Each structure stands twice: as structure tokens, then as C-alpha cells.
Amino acid sequence: MRKLVALLAVVAGIALAVQACGGDPEVAGSDAGSISPDTGGGVPTRGYSGSASRGDLVVFQIDPEHRTYTVHNETTNQDENGSYSILDGDFAGIKEVTANGKRFFAVELDDKVLAANFPVANSQANIYAGISSDIDNTGKEAQISGTYSWIHLTDEPINGSSTIKEWGILSVLANGTFKKWNFASGAGTGTPAITPMAPEALAAPVPPTSTPSETGTWGVAGSAKERLAVTIDGLAGVTLTGFAYAAEDASVFLLDLGTGKGFMLGLKNPAAHYTRAEIAGTYRFIDLWYAGSSVYRGAGTYLLPATGDGTYDHKSEDGSLATGYLQGIEACPNIPNMFVITKMQWGSTTTQDDDNVIRFAVVGKVVLHFTFDAEGNFVSYGVGARLE
After folding, report:
1. Distance, CA of 217 to CA of 229 (rounded, Å)
2. What's the CATH fold of domain 22-132?
3. What average pLDDT does the chain have?
4. CATH class of 141-268
5. What is the mean predicted confidence (pLDDT) over 123-131?
């Protein structure tokens, strides 16, 4: 049963969530008023630049008129392509691809952000996030600057264990520098190199006043103006590729950490903590979860009300469906955009409990989640979007 429990525990959405504008008249009975419209009739192709969880630089092209996509993996110099359908009902607006007997999913914030667990020309890269290739970040230092809550999406061991993940706080300054504080979900094996800490245990203020784990510089990367050139102090001769999308409802900072090292995805913190009423709504999401040594993909919908319990519906890569309840939704004390779901109940009744804990960060309509068990071992992360 742990495999099913792990599957369901992902429902509160990571990873990067996306909210789009306009409805899709081709989705029967659609309530997807914020999902990117693939209406045909000359809708232009949309491009996205970003990173996949292996640390690959990847460019997506979405052709909404023909409902096809192409992927160019700049790191492997390999390509993928295919066609997609758009789900309806409880999953309205989510893109679905079927390949090799499995289903893959994507959620798109039209011309802004794309999150996908589609194949990306590397079998070891399981989840992708990217921003519009048309974005020009020139002169947007002030809009990009701020404090971000982030998680490191990678299979690389943290504190000596592949089941431990890294999260933290990023302070991006308008003068082209940054400070980064790193924490781990658990101690792992041996003496931990990264301090183990749950987000709800982080003391005020945020960003911390303690010495940062890393510092460095950032700026627009030449002619590729959607990209950032990022250097880390002490890492001589290495320039990393970052991406930023700065908007009130979707401020995202993405940093590719290099081949084999995955990427970091951060959501900007507001000046004051969000309330339950401010984050209430219906979300679509994609997700990725581990059960033992196996990796699984899925997608779904969850409802977070202004008070009380939430609910969810989930579809896995084999087409199986699940529903459940999200309980004990609490604000993370000192991280303004983060909440904690302390209990899940899954199935057709409320008698089957799951002790995994879900943390999710929100910025406007964008949400990122990550799930760990009581020992800090990773269960899942994913992506979603609040709908109007």
C-alpha cells in the first residue's frame, strides 16, 4: 500500500504551478478558464526555455493549432516530438501524451511558463520547468529581485542519501548579486554536510541574517534575454544558466545546476504571509513521485478552500484514478508563501491515513509542492495552477 500512498501524497501541487488566461472551447464541459487555450485556427507556436531534473538545458515548442510539440535537449543534442490531447472533466486543460504505454502530462501558462513530465530526450530527466523564450529580462533587475523559497529537483544524493532532498531560501538583489541558504529534508547518512531542517522550523527573519551557504552574481545572458548568467563564488570558471519570469501572479526563479545536478526552482515571497483565503481555489498540477527505486508521473486537480479540508483527484501514468482529502492545512510560521498539509486521507472513505507531510509554496496563482515522510525521505514533487 505504500506505493499508492506515495502516489497520492503528491497532490498539493510542486514544484512550479502555472495559471493561464482564456478558456479552451474544445474542452467539453471545461472549467479550465485559466488553462492555456489550444484553439487552432492560426494560434502561433509557443516556445519555452528551461531545465530538466537531470540538469539538462531544454527548449520546448508547443504548436496549439496542430496539438503537437517538439523538444530540443541542448545538453544531449537530442530531440523528441509528438502530439498531445487535452483532458476534460476533473482534469480539464491538462495536456496528455501517450508514449511507450505510459501517459505524460503538462500544464502551460500561455507564453509565460511551462511545466511538464513529458519525455525530454534523456531518460534520466523526469520533470521539466521553463519560461517563455520570448521574455526579455533586460532592465528587470528590480522586478526579479526579492526573496524566493526554492527546492532542488535532482536525483543527486543529498547528505549521502538519494532519498533526502534540498530546499532553502534565495535572496536575489537588484545589484546583480544573490545570497542562498541551503537546508536538507533529513540528516541522511554520516555527518550531514547540509543542515537538516523542516521549513516550518526555520526561524525569523526571512531571508535569514545568518551567513549564507552560497553567494554569487547574476545578470541577463547576452542575446538570449530570457536567460540569466549566474556565477557562484568559489566555483571558478563556471557560469550556470538561470531563467526568471517576473510578474505579480507568477514570479519564478529557475537555475540549472549543471549536467547530473538537476535544477533549482524558486517562487517569490510576498511582503506579508498569504492567508488561506488568498490561496483558496481549484488547481491543476503535474507531479513526479518515487516508490522504492521506481519513478512515476501523474497529474490531477486539487481544491483548497478558504477554511477546512481540501480534496483531490489524481491520474497516474497507467491511467489509474484516485481521490482523497488534504487535512491540517497550516501556514508555515516564518516563510510568507509556504503552507503545510499535515495529514492526508485517501480512497473513497476517510479511514485510510498517510503520515507524509506536504509543504507547498505559493506566489499569486503559482504553486510549488514537495512531500516528505516523517524521517525526511522524499516522496514527491509536482506543479499546478490556480484556476479562476
Report:
1. 8
2. Lipocalin (2.40.128)
3. 86
4. mainly beta
5. 92
